[in-house]
Design brief:
The chain is of the alpha/beta class and 257 residues long. It has one domain: 3-Layer(aba) Sandwich (Rossmann fold). The chain has a seven-stranded parallel β-sheet, sandwiched between helices. A three-stranded antiparallel β-sheet has the order 4-8-7. α1 packs across α2. The longest helix has 23 residues. The radius of gyration is 17 Å and the shape is globular. The two termini are 15 Å apart.
Length: 257
């Protein structure tokens, strides 16, 4: 695992998107195609934007996958991750080969989970873009996360800290409106990515970053599993890295482009 502190949040986004773009270009050069996973949320705004304007990517050879989605939330809602990705990524990368959305409004959730699981199982993921929640979640795998399932996508119940984060970020006008369940990519499937780009800005993520980087690998801090991934690159800004020990920082290995 590699660790990076950028001088500003904007520089963090550029650094993270740049390394991810390198991975996409390398996959296309080697195999003639690439598959990626895209994260959502307020912390990913600048990363997604930077990725859409990354130079020399033949998007017609790229398939992208949706990381997680609320159950029952309509596409018209501002918190819909389908809407987020369509407006911020798909509509701006018009030549994209395909985007595999999660339909949280599906009448048959078992069938929807089966569909997206089969689609992602048919490819190798070259680059996965992820974030870390305030409770240490990875995708919507809240603590205690299921580290054992091999299912690519699962139905999960959102814990209170996770739902409070979504409310506090302004996606919902009241806490009661935040859905209690979601379809999420599993921890096992996330770890199948050849390269993981994890961008985590903001003071409110500082405790989660400390637990992820310096704590034990435990399903009570799901993102700590990144320690076990040789191709994981965690990008922070000074605020989110504020609680890390100086001794640990001195020994951390930075990403190299």
């Amino acid at each position: 695992m590699f660790f990076n502190i950028s001088d500003t949040t904007s520089k963090m986004a550029q650094d993270a998107a740049g390394l991810g773009a390198d991975g996409i270009r390398e996959a296309i050069a080697a195999r003639g195609q690439a598959s990626v996973i895209l994260a959502t949320g307020a912390s990913q705004f600048e990363i997604v934007q930077a990725l859409t304007v990354a130079p020399d990517i033949d998007w017609s050879k790229v398939t992208a996958f949706h990381l997680d989605e609320y159950i029952g939330l309509p596409l018209s809602h501002k918190a819909s991750f389908r809407r987020y990705l369509k407006e911020r990524f798909v509509d701006k990368v018009k030549a994209l080969k395909s985007f595999v959305y999660i339909n949280g409004e599906a009448g048959d959730l078992d069938a929807e989970v089966k569909r997206i699981s089969e689609e992602i199982s048919a490819v190798d993921i070259d680059v996965g873009f992820v974030g870390i929640g305030e409770n240490g979640h990875l995708a919507f795998n809240d603590p205690p996360a299921d580290f054992l399932t091999k299912a690519p996508f699962i139905v999960v119940t959102l814990d209170q800290p996770c739902r409070e984060q979504q409310f506090n970020e302004g996606w919902f006008s009241e806490l009661a409106q935040v859905p209690t369940q979601a379809i999420s990519m599993s921890i096992h499937q996330i770890l199948q990515s050849k390269t993981l780009i994890c961008a985590v800005p903001d003071t409110r993520k500082a405790k989660a970053v400390k637990n992820t980087m310096q704590g034990p690998v435990t399903n009570m801090c799901p993102a700590s599993v990144l320690q076990s991934h040789a191709g994981a690159h965690v990008f922070t800004d000074p605020a989110s890295a504020a609680l890390l020990d100086e001794k640990w920082l001195a020994s951390a290995t930075p990403s190299v482009r």
